[in-house]
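Protocol step 4 of 6: structure prediction from sequence.
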Amino acid sequence: MLKRFNNKKNLTGNSIKEARERKGLSRIQLSIKLELLGIYLDRIQIYRIEGNKLMIKDFELIGIAKILDLDLNRLKDLLD
């Protein structure tokens, strides 16, 4: 069963968007950097993740966190 929090499919979207914008990256640029790690998300999928409309896989989150210098421990605090 799909678990949602307040009708969201992920809890990290806002943090990802803020970090991407802080780095000055477009969604296309993030997509290209992810592709270099073997993670294939296009700009629309990134848009949907940032809008909490698309579930994010663990390896995608790790890749995004690596590129955007996000602390995964900070992200888990979103569950509290």
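Step 5 (inspection) to follow. The chain has a mean pLDDT of 89.
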